[in-house]
Design goal:
Largest sheet: none
Radius of gyration: 23 Å
Shape: elongated
């Protein structure tokens, strides 16, 4: 009867609400990515050159002390905290490899 129909409508509305929440989270993620890209564009307009970034990257690859350059990358590329942690963990692995006898 009416109760069953009301429950079906309520279930459908709950499913739709859940789908909208997933879409909202996706849009928030996309907005954050767009903001980061816009920030990169602005930073490069303000004088952070590809040449400077290139030189820092080369130095990072050549050096055994990666940890000192992570803050530079973090600043230049606006890493998220998670990305910074990933880079620091990779840096520790690289340093351990470099320091093997």
């Amino acid at each position: 009867g009416r109760l069953e129909e009301s429950e079906k409508v309520a279930d459908a509305l709950c499913r739709e609400r859940d789908a909208l929440r997933v879409q909202l989270e996706s849009l928030k993620d996309e907005r954050a990515r767009v903001s980061r890209v816009e920030g990169f564009e602005e930073r490069f307009k303000e004088g952070v050159s590809i040449e400077y970034l290139r030189n820092v990257l080369i130095k990072y690859i050549e050096t055994q002390d990666h940890a000192k350059l992570i803050p530079v990358f973090h600043t230049l590329l606006d890493f998220t905290p998670q990305e910074k942690q990933r880079l620091e963990a990779a840096s520790r692995r690289l340093d351990a490899t470099w320091n093997k006898p």
